[in-house]
Specification:
Transmembrane tyrosine-protein kinase that may modulate TEK/TIE2 activity and contribute to the regulation of angiogenesis. It catalyses: L-tyrosyl-[protein] + ATP = O-phospho-L-tyrosyl-[protein] + ADP + H(+). Residues 428-527, 530-624, 628-721 form the Fibronectin type-III domain. GO terms for molecular function: ATP binding; transmembrane receptor protein tyrosine kinase activity. The protein is 14% helix and 35% strand. With 1120 residues, it is mainly β. It has eight domains: 1-30 and 39-102, Sandwich (Immunoglobulin-like), CATH 2.60.40.10; 104-195, Immunoglobulin-like (Sandwich); 335-426, Sandwich (Immunoglobulin-like), CATH 2.60.40; 432-521, Sandwich (Immunoglobulin-like); 532-621, Immunoglobulins (Immunoglobulin-like), CATH 2.60.40.10; 633-718, Immunoglobulin-like (Sandwich); 818-900, Phosphorylase Kinase, domain 1; 905-1094, Transferase(Phosphotransferase) domain 1 (Transferase(Phosphotransferase), domain 1). The strands form 25 sheets. Strands 4-5-2-1-24-25 form a six-stranded antiparallel β-sheet, with no helix packed on it. It has a five-stranded mixed β-sheet with strand order 9-15-14-11-12, with no helix packed on it. Helix 8 packs antiparallel against helix 10 (1014-1029), helix 8 (935-954) packs antiparallel against helix 13 and helix 10 packs antiparallel against helix 12 (1062-1071). The relative contact order is 0.04.
Length: 1120
């Protein structure tokens, strides 16, 4: 509907705040009567949501003058005037808010123009002129949030400019320019209004053309009507009001004897605010210059034929002339607003209107319509208005021969005028073929309804009929978008359905005839159970044993067997393995390619239908391994321990990384157990935790780049309860003819080292437990708002009590019992904390975990960050690409946090260990590679990290310390975001405390202003991407932090690595853009990296090209 007739007036003629007032006037019928059809009363108030200023000394007074006017007075000081005021009127969907922005005349910066109305896609330029100069930077804000910073040297002729290219409706709002650390009262405030369509268009899809608003009127982007400036009215704002009047019908009168001088008029969007017609200037008290008129005096008269320029209404035409510039004669009739082209559907009877004006005034009989064949149609009705006569013609049923040029002609005693327009007669579309079946399930059919058709497009809608074959029941109908396929749901399994389609084009009578029907049959019931991959292990260089399970459900199993899918992404090859028995739960895959990464899933099938796939697993089939270890011997040491001794394989292809021992009960039916010997120089181990008087089978294999062949199986039994061997090493040595005295010494040394290791571990654990006894039960930390926070523990709850707030904020976390944690060895430690690998028991299952704990003398800030990390982990929830919380435990007043254990450590060390040219040059040159990691795996690290950061950003968390050292490598080499000790659940975080900063990973705004947002995390991700491509190089290696502070604002960025594709480097550069809002969001980064993975292209070149060198590493620089 039409825009609400609502005007907000600000009287700027009064210099004293006590005399300043705002008035809201409604021209709507019934305005302000409360519960009647027009809705709630008028509201006029100061809006402090964006521009916050000191509260007035005394409340503002709101007075009502009748039902259509409300006035706000009582301003006691200049600061009361600064900010945003709003007037609200209208009812329901027509409820409208009009805004007025007031700037302090004594501010440091003032806007050249307060209100800016632009179109979608335009470039908006906000200009603030300097009234009082300060030699500090200027901060631009949008809707109260940080947006951009300008150096004070960037002022141009005393003005600071902010250019906003390609603006969108979301760019609308209140903008401000403020000197750094200055009061908001000294800011320049702007209002930016962005129409929802490009210039000259309106409508939901912006395809309709605006009517051409005159005298500075603005086309409404939703209903296409002109919002006229104060002092003008009419459908196109073509009529001027008398001086001093305003409103949609010129029904309102400016108060006082000075007319509209000194008044600012604010109208509904997209118009905004301006002076009244005939006035200009920041105070609206300057009259228009000669030759100019209208609101803000932006219009030029350019009068013709003796017309004179009036600054309020424009050209005043002499007798016999009219028009905006007096260019039209009153004597000659004229066709008005005739469209150039019309479109109708075949065999419809449309109505065509033709409007005309002139002197004398046209009447019904003076307007006629001519068809292309010369047939003259007379109007059936005429609507006479003050400025025109509109004749209405009822057209007989249209045929194809009616397409062509039609003519509207008006004739009076003053002359005649005619206007030609084209009429296109379109044929409704009719399907030539039946709809196509795309897919079928037991209760669904997926149909492509839009096939070849006769007639004219475009297709506006598709109506689809369907019912069971040979049924007399009514057709079921569904109407869909022509660009979409149709899914027919809730059907009967194994049933034939008759399906047909009707197409429609735009306009009345656009429905075509029904197309030919077709028969579609639903499938047998689809399997609904989702298998779960229980595990897999390599049984040979090209063989993989896979096991899976199904959830238990009542009733018979719906399924004929299982389908396993192996996807080799590097080669773009897929292999499918059919297991034809629905009772099978394991299979052996043979003929695989050694050294290949596969993506594996399994699903149940029935008939031709596949059930849901199991969660995909990433499986690495190792390269062909070394030969089997030689001369394996086993010797029982006690009722629970057996010692194994062997010799190294002959001629292994590379350095051995570890040995793998397989243990199995001789008469048992269970799966074998595997254990790793991670020290390749040792050729013996002790297997503990065995059952007494039990016979076991053992075998060993070595691993280089992957596991090799198994040794021969050996058998040994544990001793009876309480017995212990007296010299196992000597007996083992005697049994082997080829072992000499050196082997005996090696075994003795190995056993001694093992015993010492166990003793040291027990002593360490004892110290840890003893130190826990002296720790406090309650400790405090300072929250982000500066309040003191008490941390208390109770069953599964961490309570954060912030003083002086009366109510605590409980934080629930999954509870681990102290008895269910078995500490193993130290993973790492920092200045205030330790991370210990442990085995925990959760929900009845044992699993590896990393336990984080504070050192005994940690500071209160350390306790704050540690508890904050638990809070972040709880709020984040679960995601495959972040380190997830397993639980927490409180013991003797101290907090222990259990998180996922990442077996491969942090990504930085993992990348640096892959530099095979440094660790094994012979292997690197033989295989022509600089890394043990493939290009696809490196890109996968980046993609996983982007997915994890997208999840963090969607949860409104800022990481603040994103770097390769804070990304961990988990199972199946999946990268996971970790170390949330500095994370903040805020859209913008400003650091106010001192501390060591990760300068080489920080964005420009973080370095200069200590401002952290998700966009500063995007900058850090660009550095992380550089670290991945460079295999763990140090960013800006060779540069000091001081040089970074100087060069980054000047545009310096890290160079493109030689092994990096242009597309990957361009993504880095996008992350390092100066302006935060120009950096891509994490959702876009994750999508772009995902597409790179699918492209099967080597975006990171790991081949040994000529003069290949690794990026430099400077450990001392990374600490800064």
């Amino acid at each position: 509907g039409a825009a609400v007739d609502l005007t907000l007036l600000a009287d700027l003629r009064l210099t004293e705040p006590q005399r300043f007032f705002l008035t809201c006037v409604s021209g709507e019928a019934g305005a302000g009567r409360g519960s009647d059809a027009w809705g709630s009363p008028l509201l006029l108030e100061k809006d402090d949501r964006i521009v916050r200023t000191p509260r007035p000394w005394q409340p503002l007074h709101l007075t009502r003058n009748g039902s259509r006017q409300v006035t706000l007075r009582g301003f006691s000081q200049p600061s009361d005037l600064v900010g945003v005021f709003s007037c609200v009127g209208g009812a329901g969907a027509r409820r409208t808010r009009v805004l007025y922005v007031h700037n302090s005349p004594g501010a440091h910066l003032l806007p050249d123009k307060v209100t800016h109305t632009v179109n979608k896609g335009d470039t908006a330029v906000l200009s603030a002129w300097v009234r009082k100069e300060k030699q500090t930077d200027v901060i631009w804000k949008s809707n109260g949030s940080y947006f951009y910073t300008l150096d004070w040297h960037e002022a141009q002729e005393g003005r600071f400019l902010l250019q906003l290219p390609n603006v969108q409706p979301s760019s609308s709002g209140i903008y401000s320019a403020t000197y750094l650390e200055a009061s908001p009262l000294g800011s320049a405030f702007f209002r930016l209004i962005v129409r929802g369509c490009e210039a000259g268009h309106w409508g939901q899809d912006c395809t309709k053309e605006c009517p051409g608003c005159l005298h500075g009127g603005v086309c409404h982007d939703q209903d296409g009507e002109c919002v006229c400036p104060p002092g003008f009215t009419g459908t196109r704002c073509e009529q001027a009001c008398r001086e001093g009047r305003f409103g949609q019908s010129c029904q309102e009168q400016c108060p006082g004897t000075s007319g509209c001088r000194g008044l600012t008029f604010c109208l509904p969007d997209p118009y905004g605010c301006s002076c009244g017609s005939g006035w200009r200037g920041s105070q609206c008290q300057e009259a228009c210059a000669p030759g100019h008129f209208g609101a803000d005096c932006h219009l030029q008269c350019q009068c013709q034929n003796g017309g004179t320029c009036d600054r309020f209404s424009g050209c005043v035409c002499p007798s016999g002339w009219h028009g905006v510039h007096c260019e039209k004669s009153d004597r000659i009739p004229q066709i008005l607003d005739m469209v150039s082209e019309l479109e109708f559907n075949l065999e419809t009877t449309p109505r065509i209107n033709c409007a005309a004006a002139g002197n004398p005034f046209p009447v019904r009989g003076s307007v006629e319509l001519r068809k292309p064949d010369g047939t003259v149609l007379l109007s059936t009705k005429a609507i006479v208005e003050p400025d025109r006569t509109t004749a209405e013609f009822e057209v007989p049923r249209l045929a194809l021969g009616d397409s062509g040029l039609w003519e509207c002609r008006v004739s009076t005693s003053g002359g005649q005028d005619s206007r030609r327009f084209r009429v296109n007669v379109k044929v409704p579309p009719v399907p030539l073929t039946a709809p196509r079946l795309l897919a079928k399930q037991s209760r669904q059919l997926v149909v492509s309804p839009l096939v070849s058709f006769s007639g004219d497009g475009p297709i506006a809608s598709v109506r689809l009929h369907y019912r069971p074959q040979d049924s007399t029941m009514a057709w079921s109908t569904i109407v869909v978008d022509p660009s979409e396929n149709v899914t027919l749901m809730n059907l009967r399994p194994k049933t034939g359905y008759s399906v047909r389609v009707q197409l429609s084009r735009p306009g009345e009578g656009g429905e075509g005839a029904w197309g030919p029907p077709t028969l579609m049959t639903t499938d047998c019931p689809e399997p609904l159970l989702q298998p779960w991959l229980e595990g897999w292990h390599v049984e040979g260089p090209d063989r993989l044993r896979v096991s899976w399970s199904l959830p238990s459900v009542p009733g018979p199993l719906v399924g004929d067997g299982f389908l396993l899918r192996l996807w080799d992404g590097a080669r773009g090859q897929e292999r499918r393995e059919n297991v034809s028995s629905p009772q099978a739960r394991t299979t052996l895959l043979t003929g695989l390619t050694p050294g290949t990464h596969y993506q594996l899933d399994v699903r149940l099938y029935h008939c031709t239908l596949l059930g849901p796939a199991s969660p995909a697993a990433r499986v690495l089939l190792p390269p062909s391994g070394p030969p089997a270890p030689r001369h394996l011997h086993a010797q029982a040491l006690s009722d629970s321990e057996i010692q194994l001794v062997w010799q190294r394989p002959e001629a292994p292809a590379g350095p051995i990384s570890k040995y793998i021992v397989e243990v199995q009960v001789a008469e048992g039916s269970g799966d074998p157990l595997w254990m790793d010997v991670d020290r390749p120089e040792e050729t013996s181990t002790v297997v503990r935790g065995l059952n007494a008087s039990t016979r076991y089978l053992f075998r060993v294999r070595a691993s280089v780049q992957g596991p090799g062949d198994w040794s021969d199986m050996v058998e040994e039994s544990t001793l009876s309860n309480g017995l212990q061997s007296e010299g196992p090493v000597q007996e083992v040595q005697a049994a082997e003819e080829g072992l000499d005295q050196q082997l005996v010494l090696a075994v003795v040394g190995s056993v001694s080292a093992t015993c010492l290791t166990i003793l040291a571990a027990l002593l360490t654990l004892a110290c840890i437990r003893r130190s826990c006894l002296h720790r406090r039960r309650t400790f405090t930390y300072q929250s982000g708002s500066g309040e003191e926070t008490i941390l208390q523990f109770s069953s599964g709850t961490l309570t954060l009590t912030r003083r002086p707030k009366p109510q605590p904020e409980p934080l629930n976390y999954p509870v681990l019992e102290w008895e269910d944690i078995t500490f193993e060895d130290l993973i790492g430690e920092g200045n205030f904390g330790q991370v210990i690998r442990a085995m925990i028991k959760k929900d009845g299952l044992k699993m590896n975990a990393a336990i984080k704990m504070l050192k005994e003398y940690a500071s209160e800030n350390d306790h704050r960050d540690f508890a904050g990390e638990l809070e972040v982990l709880c709020k984040l929830g679960h995601h495959p690409n972040i380190i997830n919380l397993l639980g927490a435990c409180e013991n003797r007043g101290y907090l222990y946090i259990a998180i996922e254990y990442a077996p491969y450590g942090n990504l930085l060390d993992f990348l640096r260990k892959s530099r095979v040219l440094e660790t094994d040059p012979a292997f690197a040159r033989e295989h022509g590679t600089a890394s043990t990691l493939s290009s696809r795996q490196l890109l996968r690290f980046a993609s996983d990290a982007a997915n994890g950061m997208q999840y963090l950003s969607e949860k409104q968390f800022i990481h603040r310390d994103l770097a390769a050292r804070n990304v961990l490598v988990g199972e199946n080499l999946a990268s996971k975001i970790a170390d949330f000790g500095l994370s903040r659940g805020e859209e913008v975080y400003v650091k106010k405390t001192m501390g060591r900063l990760p300068v080489r990973w920080m964005a420009i705004e973080s370095l200069n202003y200590s401002v952290y947002t998700t966009k500063s995390d995007v900058w850090s991700f660009g550095v992380l991407l550089w670290e991945i491509v460079s295999l763990g190089g140090t960013p800006y290696c060779g540069m000091t932090c001081a040089e970074l502070y100087e060069k980054l604002p000047q545009g310096y960025r890290m160079e493109q690595p030689r092994n990096c594709d242009d597309e990957v480097y361009e993504l880095m550069r996008q992350c390092w853009r100066d302006r935060p809002y120009e950096r891509p969001p994490f959702a876009q980064i994750a999508l772009q990296l995902g597409r790179m993975l699918e492209a099967r292209k080597a975006y990171v070149n790991m081949s040994l090209f000529e003069n290949f060198t690794y990026a430099g590493i400077d450990a001392t620089a990374e600490e800064a």
